[in-house]
Fold:
Amino acid sequence: MKLILAVLVVLFVVGTQAQWYQFPREALQGSRDMWRAYSDMREANWKNSDKYFHARGNYDAAQRGPGGRWAASIISDARESVPGKSGSGSSDSAADQEANRWGRNGGDPNRYRPKGLPEKY
Structure:
């Protein structure tokens, strides 16, 4: 019941900025953007590239609209809140969150792009 109420509140609040029926579609598309960035990061297997992929996934998702921005926020926060899953500790997690916010707020993900990362990504 609480989950349904929370979803309704989110939809109501977001409805002031977008059509309510677009939010779920944007959230799904944003989730796919986040998954694509994660898959690309795993495929690239490039040293010091995780911040770039964090920023890129959040940027792409946020470009979908409020639903995509919401999905990126939820996914990023969940990923960084799981102990032992985010890399080298709290400083790395804080840097990841900075890259997440940078991308979600429309910052160019290339700020975090490491030298030599293939153009494919």
Summary: The mean pLDDT is 88.
